[in-house]
Structures
1.
Amino acid sequence: MVLEATMICIDNSEWMRNGDYSPSRYQAQADAINLICGAKTQSNPENTVGVLTMAGKGVRVLVTPTSDLGKILACMHGLEIGGEMNLTAGIQVAQLALKHRQNKKQKQRIIVFAGSPIKYDKKTLEAIGRKLKKNSVALDVVDFGESDDGKPEKLEALVAAVNNNDNSHIVHVPPGPSALSDVLISTPIFTGDGEGGSGFAAAAAAAAAGGMSGFDFGVDPNIDPELALALRISMEEERARQEAAAKKAAEESTKQEKVGEQASSSQDAAMTEAVNTSAVVADDKKQNLTDDEAALLEQALAMSMDGAKSTSVDIADADMSDATAEDPELAYALQMSVQETARDSSSQSEMSKVLEDQSFVSSILNSLPGVDPNDPSLKDFLASLQGQSETQQKQKEDESEKGGDK
Amino acid sequence: MASVVSSAIPRGQVDLVDFVDWSGVECLNQTTSHPLANALKQGYRDDDGLHLESDADQQLLIYVPFAQVIKLHSAVITGPEEEGPNTVKLFANKEHMGFSNVNDYPPSDSLNISLDNLKGMPVTLKYVKFQNVRSLTIFIEDNQADGDVTKVQKIALFGTTVDTTNMKDLKKIEEH
């Protein structure tokens, strides 16, 4: 947690239009800078960061060292790409900006992103490096983009001249599949001389490494272990139920998939409600959950349509108390399904009526917090329900097991 | 340099090393292996094996704040014959100077260190300029041989405090 004032020098020259770093060199640079600013301000709340551009019309300070992360990120918008990078002037202006920092106790650091060719010779750079060392300013250089003859050596010489007790670093990033920021996260530029910032870096790495898709259920077990556990348990329970239902359905021979559908959708509802009450409201997480539920619903429906469903009524009984507490409409539906199984073919028509009532079904679905009624898979399911209830009425007397017209 | 002269503290003056505010002491362009403490701190400064050395070039900028206001009378600056400091400028009460603005202000005093001084003879300062000193900035501009590295063995400051309390004489009172 070193108390530090940092000036970041951005290369916004013409060479930054190149796309060898995705999406473009400039964009990769901007992402890396955003991450660095976050890491610096997080590792010590009194740290300040400033930004300047080296190309364009000339060296221009966008924001003087401040601890306000919002201000820093905002000033990076709408930067124009063009011109040629002036490395020496950029470093000198950065040094001046650091000299006039408000808190003199902060150590001084300059981070330079060097993406375009360097027209200065080694001697000039070394002289600048010595001047920085004399004024106890540390320097980090990110060498990316153009790699003409001598650029890496020049930058190495510069950093060596500044280096005092390993406080200055240089990183060479060749173009490749991984993003510039990902490569930088593991370097000392981020981890700050081996201490501090590593917590942020680890979290950033976790987020960067494929975001949610890296983990089951879109939840990082490190961030929220209880939620991850709850999701995993309910998923396993659902699978177990479905397997049991499938087994029993295969054994027995009768009945209404309507009851089965209703029962299994109530199971799903119970599960999804349990899931959703504990879910943190994050947009993409919610999206993941919705997709999972839709998949689960379809799965459950497919299974229930395969076999007869009087069996699943037993399971429905077990769930009923839970579901009842959460949703009166659902309870009503369940009641009806239970009543139907007690009766015979007459119940079929009632059930079909219930399901025919499109608005009723939609209202049930709407009441389920995680379910998106506009989900296409749900719409298909509802449409198939309609079709099924009609066929059922035709085949009323048949007690057919099938009915899975979709 | 344990020879001759020196150690003869001018009458009435005290060694101000006790009044230095160590948390604010800074030195620019020193090597990490030979820091300022070697020249300034009691014990270290008398050790011949320890000295202060410059890094990138021959200049050194030393900032010494004091815990209380003092009057500065004289100073002892010792070092090797060749690499010892030559031109030394003193600035009173100027905070956080850098090498770039060190020539913007006239110094409170400018010293030319002779070889005798380097052996330990105290340099008398312009006392009138140092009547009310909260912090002292010592700018060592070059060394005797005009080489790239300046070495300083010892820096000792002598003077008096503004209020006449001699902190060493202040004994803790157990009972009133």
2.
Amino acid sequence: MPPSPSPPRPARRTPENARKKAYKEQTDVTNGRRRREAQLLQLRKSRREDTLSKRRRDDASSPSTEPESDIGPARPESDRPSSSDPPPLACATDADSNKLLGIINGLKSENISLQLEATTKIRKILSVDGNSLAEEVITADVVARLVELLSSKKNPRGPQLQVEAAWALTNITAGTSEHTEVVTNAGAVPKLVKLLESPRSDVREQAMWALGNVAAESQRCRELIIDHGGLVQLLSQFNEHAKVSNLRMATWTLSNLCFGKLPSKSQTKAVLQILQQLLNSIDEKILSDTCWAVSYLCNHGTDEIQMVIESQICCRLVKLLMHSSPKVVTPVILALANVSAADDCQVQFLIDSGILQCLLKLLTRNYQKCIKNQACRTVSNICAGTTAQIQAIIDAKMVPLLIQLSQHGETDIKKEAIWAIANATSGGSPDQIRSLVGDGCIIALCNALVLSDADLLYACLNGLESILKVGEMEKMKDEAGANPYAVLMEECGGLDKLENLQGFNNDAIFEKTIKLLESYWVEEGSEFEVPKEPSTDDT
Amino acid sequence: MAMEITQALLAAQSPDTQTRTAAEASLKQFQEQNLPQFLLSLSVELSNEQKPPESRRLAGIILKNSLDAKDSARKEYLTQQWVSVDPSIKFQIKESLLRTLGSSAAEARHTSSQVIAKVASIEIPRKEWQDLIGKLLGNVTQTFAPGFLKQATLEALGYVCEEVAPQDLEQDQVNAILTAVVQGMTSAEPNSDVRLAAIRALYNALDFAQQNFENQVERNFIMKVVCETAVSKESAEIRQAAFECLVAIASIYYDYLEPYMQTLFNLTAEAVRGDEEQVALQAIEFWSTLAEEEMERQDDCVALDELNSPVLHFHFIDKALESLVPMLLETLLKQEEDQDQDDTVWNLSMAGGTCLGLVSKTVGDKVVPLVMPFVERNIAKADWHSREAATFAFGSILEGPSVEKLSPLARSGFEFLLSAMKDQNSHVRDTTAWTLGRVFELVHRPASGDPIVNEKNLPGIMTVLLESIRDVPNVAEKVCGALYFLAQGYEDAGPASKALTPYYESIIAALLSTADRVDVSNVRLRASAYETLNEVVRCSYAPETLNTTAQLLQEIIRRVIQTVELQVVSSDDKEKQSDLQALLCGVLQVIIQKLGSSEGKSVILQAADQMMMVFLRVFGCRSSTVHEEAMLAIGALAYVTGADFAKYMSEFYRFLEMGLTNFEEYQVCSISVGVVGDICRALDDKILPYCDGIMTILLKDLSNAMLNRSVKPPIFSCFGDIALAIGEKFDKYLIYAAPMMQSASEMCMHLDTTDDDMVEYINQLRRGIFEAYSGMLQGFKNSNSEIMIPYARSLVQFIEAVFKDNISDDLVTKAAVAALGDVADALGGGIKVLLANSSFYNELLSECLLSEDYTLKETAEWAHTLIQHALQS
């Protein structure tokens, strides 16, 4: 009888062939073709999405990158991506402690090979997150010795030792504030600054990295660096011979130094001169850090903002709002939001640079919340300007958008939109107010009367007051002789909300509320039949 | 006619071509002229004991092939053809088949049992031939039935069970079958052929036995008989078949196994230690299957939340571990000489090691202390069997246990492994190289604080590997694997991947000369060498390896040209040429992607002309696989060259067209469609001159019923790519493309959503359609968006339908929301009319705004703002 070939059922059991394949299998090696295809598919998918999101954001010029969500203070850089080889120890045991002793002996030796080996080992121990040995390494002794090694004698391997020592210090300064303090107390800063003069770019780069970490720590640390001439040395790194990696590092370190107020105007000017050049860089990392530096400077006060404007970079900044990377757009909009809070002349400069069209795009297109929020804040600052500036907002057709955002936007964006509307109505000319009312500002402001932010409430009341005043002028045209805007307020429930505000626990708001009620509405039981004339002397 | 068909059937097997062709033609003519008579004659031929065995055999085969085919369309055709045959003729055929089960010719019985099952597979689901089971059972239960009739009938029952689905048989039929089959297995049955047929039939009937296994009494009985059969003294074949049943039971009826586990352990252990190899192999297979089943259940336990019915998991492997592992370790010592040089060998040590690997994956750390003493005891013994077994055991447990548990072991054994690469026995070297590869793959973590491979031991490792790659082919192949995983460890390791830079050149040189080896009898070594080369290039530290990679690029180009110039005579030559070209084009793709994304871009740009020339010459050799690999590489190249790719289009277009129209080899078509997208993104509107041709073919492909459906979603996405590239110029294709999109989206509504594969397909198709709409809307946005107005309504309806039927995955939903935003973006206030009477979009958006998928949420926010803006404008 021939053997009956009952074919195995793959669903139920693994046929011998499949089992045989599992014998000493090296699957990846044989699936190369499928993997290559998958890689290309992935590439294709992300390119397609890039192309689409570029279009969706209108006409940005280069492919976008992943958004970065942090806005804000100096970002201490953590250590280098882990090295090719290990720190010899993973967790502290007695044996490990002995080895540690060996390393420290090497560090203290006078033989440069031993020093180098020990420094490298320490650097590696430090570059592993959560290494229990790290704490044991960061002692005053060891750090002091590392600082000494920064200025090692002339020796062919000297620069290598300097890099390793600076690298180890970089890793320490990426840790806690206490760790950084050990480093600064050991006198590392002047020696690191000195290293910026080294003829070797790898030494300079590592020193900048360490200084950047120190600068991120505190204002005191930043002043320490500047006092030792660090800023001047850093600015001299920007020259036509510098490598891109050096420029990136220098820009990052500079941005960290700018996080605090610089001691003198001349320093700010010198920094701005460099930043102005860097703003034309095509390297996204450099561009991003440059913009951060500018945005920090704009944080320090109107003097700095004035200098920023004088350095004539605002025009470039406005253009950068349309950059495709959120890493650039985020600091730029932060900087411009600060500039827009300055005086009317400075704001006019922004409008003349075409900022409104850019803001409109930021607000309507696919941008992150934090960017939209700052864009909206910028708009509200502009709305607080002159009537000409308010007119520019109206002409840019921004009002309907603001009203929509004030109703449906995210909480923060919503508030900024209400600020914008309140500012525009408070400061607008009668014609402008009529146009604003036509777009629906009354409802927007009335809806805002339930908020708990007293400053914002007061601004809304101011805006409503201006509107009602214009309404009094309209009264003449009205057959019934009523203030049409007061009527609108009543119809949208604004009057009820206004009456509720009498219970709001804030004197200024209480007084303003009473004033509005008394001026435009007959109080119940009042003997007056007609509303009072609005008083004109207390705007 | 009866006489004639015998002659024709015999002549069709004649060695003389002319006779054979003539006979085949006359059979075909008969078949076409009168199919029912033709089938009847075949069945008569098969059942006629007077006819020669050769004509009966062919009659059976033709009959079987007239009922079933692998291709599903053909199978459906044959089914319809059988159904439409006159019932009285079908009756005669079936009677004659049943009669043949009692034939004295074994081959005729066997063939007829198979044909019966094929007829059953058509008729039983249609509730026809309902007396078949009864008739078959009648044969078996007749007291005086001859053994060979019982044997053939049981075989037929087994095949029927295999062909029909459980729901097509009534429970009482199932009960009767099981009773008859189990009866045939017991020692009461004197004929061992019958017992073998019975146990094999049970194997096929197990799927039907759900209810019987749920019943404790019946279950006990079935298990008892199977276990008894597993130790039956008669023949190894019977015991093997019984163990095959146990393997199947372990996987189908795991939930009921617990009471029998002690018995089963004893049975399998005895078989592994004392029975013939074919039985012992199945006994090991039992444990391998159990381990896989438990791993699956572990995954399910993790995947299901606690509210769902808990998955039963008895941890059988874990509980048996202390006895199971020693049993498996013993098998490792039973290697055969040269087993690694022969791909057809499958023996106890191979099965045992593979099982040990599965056990290790199932229980993790616990396996380590049970295996390590064996390793230490045997690794240095004089007998190579011991050394190999120790190494194989160690290599087998590297997956499953934690890296923390393994790294000290790997670390302390590392030097030994390296020295074992010089063992005098090639089998030991083979296993050692494989084990080193596993250490690199599973235990080596370059990015961790304390990697096993470090600057101290790397030089030694490289010396050994580069020397051993020249070893015999099977060892060399494993060494390639080791290099592959060593390199892969440095993927994304940043500057850590510098570690391999000093060896980069020598690794490449070694791999290239390995690929050139003349002693390579099988093609695997060459493929491994090139795939390893790819991995080494891909994971290298680009800033330091740029020049060497650039040189490699030239070398590979040279090699491709060599293949084109090869003398190709036979089809074998052709296949070799095409396989080699596929490997080389693969290397080119990897180099293009590696250098194209770094400072090496200029290298690729400089060599682009050369490469395109090479690809075109490869296309000139015409072979589908090369076609695919070269296409893939061209797609990668287009991204690097950008708009400069335009200069190649006039020559390349011919081949692109060839790829796009190759619907028989649908992968070629699919890859070509993808490359169109790549080129669109590279060329933008410079692709315009070719769009007429491309669009015509793509539209034809879409309406081609023979084209594999998996190509259709990418074609729709490709419409979007083209529209984005050429913008308003897409207008002339819109009237053709849009109706295709509409009808495909409607077709989705009528597909079977209970079938998981179908749901997956619907999702892909929808995503493709949405991408097409998005590309068009964004393409027309700035110039001629009104042109989309007539199609926007059906898009909105499509989005609504997709939203409401709830089978979409997140990617589809995201594509739908994005398309909705694109409508608002492109048409602005124009959407007021479209959304006037619907509210679904608000629900859709608010649902997505709550999504945990960040990108979906972001897309929804974007769409929401645009829609609000558009509605208020």
